[in-house]
Each structure stands twice: as structure tokens, then as C-alpha cells.
Amino acid sequence: NIMRWIHILIVACLACFSLSLGAQGEPKLPSDKELQAILVDFEEYAETSMRDWETPGMAVTIVRGEDIIYTKAFGVKTQGGDDPITTDTIFQIGSTSKAFTAALVAMLVDEGKAGWKDPVIEHVLDFEMYDPWVTREFMIEDLMAQRSGMPSHAIDGLVLFGFDRNHVRHALRYAKPISSFRSEFAYQNNLFLVAAQLIEKHTGKSWEENIKERIFEPLSMSASTMDMKSFQEAKDVTSLHHRLGDKIVTLSKDWPYLHWTYVYGPAGGINSNITDMAQW
User: Fold this and answer.
1) Which residues form a coiled coil (predicted)?
2) Residues 6 or more apart from 210 whose CB is under 8 A from it?
3) Mean pLDDT for the chain overall
4) Domains of the chain, with CATH numbers?
């Protein structure tokens, strides 16, 4: 029967294909000599990128498995200066802080205190979006998915007028959407304040205490902080820079809007260096 033989042939081909995939196994890791060549190329790429982006200074680390295989500081702390960046230099890590907040939420999920698809309103009773249907449907995972329907960076400016985290969270109900829920990407900081509220409710501790006790201390990130004073008083610290037109300008440490970063701490308020970040 020809169909029977076709069937046998197909099964045999699939079996051979399966064996060939299995034989490939894990990708071969580069030898020490090959790795050194890769790192030389990477360093050239890093230096080129720094020039292309007009970045005064940066620090880079590469972690493979449990091993730190490369760490280097590039450039200077202040545009036009000569004080070099070191591996201990403190930076504001900006929105990379969001990953720390997401990790705390993931810990709550692992502990069974919340689920990714739980409605936020079940955990944060005063949570409210502009549309009542969105309020009901908004899940914990949506807090970090950047698809809320609000315009990008909605209500971020409130903090510049002295409003705190609670005011920003309350103002979500007045942020009129510009797209339907979950249909468009639009970057937000505000919803990470709700994620922090969720963390604080289930732990009875502030977002800052949770970051310190559940991440910084276990990972020995002793140089990392979450407040403006620590950044301003640090000795080995990068200056603040801002692009103004086609120029990079240096901002003073008492820049009047610096507090914004720390009110929005769960979205962008961690200070750290490359030594600590390698542990993370």
C-alpha cells in the first residue's frame, strides 16, 4: 500500500530530524582565547557607541552564568572634565529601576500573595482608570506591560508641582486614553507607583524597604541607594547631563527637578554602580 509506505517514510524522516536536533545539544562555549577576541571586539563597539551617542562616561560589565567576565569604566564623570569614571562611580540607573519593582511583584506571585492575571482592583482597592471597564479588567501584569491606552508619560508632570505618589496614583482616573486598552504601546512611569502600592500592601513595608531587604542586602549591593540625598552626597558620582538641542549640557546637583526621579522611585529612582549591578 503506497500510502502506508509514505507514512513510514514520513515517520522515519521525522525521527532522523529529531535525532539530528538532539545531537546538536547545547551551543559550544568559546575558548578562553576566543572569548578574549570577542571582548576586544566588544570593547571597540562600546567605545564607538559612546562616541556616537555623545556619552561623557559609562561603565560596563558582562556576566556569564555566575561569573563576571568583563568590567570596565569608560570616559569621564562630567562633560569636558578629566575626572574618570571608575567601577565604583554611582549613576542614576533610571528606568532600569523598573526591573527591580517587577522583581518584587514576581516575588509576591511566587509566594502566592498575588497572580499576574489578578485584577489590580482586587489588591489595590482605590485603583481607578478613566474607563470603568478598564479598571475592572486591568491585571497586575498590565501594570508593567506599557499598553494601558493612556498617552505616553501620562501625568508625569504632576510631581514637578509638588504632588506625591498618592496624588499621581489618584490622578490616573483623569488620564483620558488615546487608544483602546492593550492595543498600543505607550511608555508609562505612573503605573509602577501602583505596583509599588501593591508591594507595600502585601508586605507592610515601603517600596524602599522591600528593595533594600529583598534585593540589595541579599545581593550585597552595598553602594546602591534610592534617595536624592545619597546621590547628592556621594563622593564618586557621575554628573547629571541633558541633551539641549544638539549639545550635551551638565546639570548641577541642586537641579530643581531632581526630586522627580525619587518621587517616581519605583519607576526610576535607584542609584547604583557597575560593581553592584553585576550582582543584580
Assistant:
1) none
2) 104, 199, 200, 203
3) 92
4) 29-75 (no CATH), 98-211 (3.40.710.10)
